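Can you give me the bound-state structure? Components:
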Amino acid sequence: MAPPPSAASRIGVLLLRSLTFACLVISLILLTTDTATLEVDLLEFKVRFKDVYAYRYMVATTVMGMAYSLCQIVLTLYYITTGNRLMSDDNNLQFDFYGDKVVSYVLLSGAAAAFGATKDMKPLFSGSGDVDKFFNKGYASASLLLLGFVCTAMLSVYSSYALPKKV
Amino acid sequence: MAPPPSAASRIGVLLLRSLTFACLVISLILLTTDTATLEVDLLEFKVRFKDVYAYRYMVATTVMGMAYSLCQIVLTLYYITTGNRLMSDDNNLQFDFYGDKVVSYVLLSGAAAAFGATKDMKPLFSGSGDVDKFFNKGYASASLLLLGFVCTAMLSVYSSYALPKKV
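Here's the bound-state model for the whole set.
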């Protein structure tokens, strides 16, 4: 069994989780409020994030990441205030390890899908209405998601080192 | 220091690395031979993977993954045949851990970017020449890259458990 983590490392982990959560919240707000008017043959269409499949997927991954971060923040605060854990130490380390690993993959896939789609779609619609602004906000949202991924990847390295060895 | 891995786990790791390498080679061949003819206003344009930014990125990530897998396969075969390692055991475990982690992220980002771009671009060009076939081959290539990622992610879980503990 691993020794219990120091207070400094617990606070570092809590800060990284809070930073992840903050990035994801801002990313979600940016993306869901992102609208544009597309002009095609003198007709105007309203474009929202729902019209780009990659952005829908990005929203799904962001929400999943937010739920996980919030759950981890609550568990850490509960531990700091009461000194008890809801799970045994080993189960807790396994949960951190697999959680951080899977969620970091999920966040990265959302950000990469959004970057890939935005980079290739933006030139196709360039100049029609304010679509440039729409895609730029998409970039900003994906960048924040990428920052959330970087924090989670750092947590994933930490939770891998904390893992009890089996092989 | 971790105990040396058993022969069975060494062979399992070698098989997973070889499977990753094979998936990446087929993915690269599929993508680089993927061409189509796009018809716009009675003009015909030749489309290659280089014309889609996400596919260029996918090629870069695939080549990086292939180089890493090949390097790991050579190191493992050298160890199996001579019984010696080029690095100390601890350095070797660290190299496996960070290598598998970073390369799995790289492969996933390539596959996700390609899926994101293909899903959103395909309907835009649907019906113009044989572009549907072009994007379908893009999907196939990205799926193989995703399979390579899954193998590397499994190796990454294994190398995390094998890691010497520090925290």
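A couple of observations. Residues 89-125 of chain A form the longest helix (37 residues). Strands of chain A lie at 35-40, 43-48.
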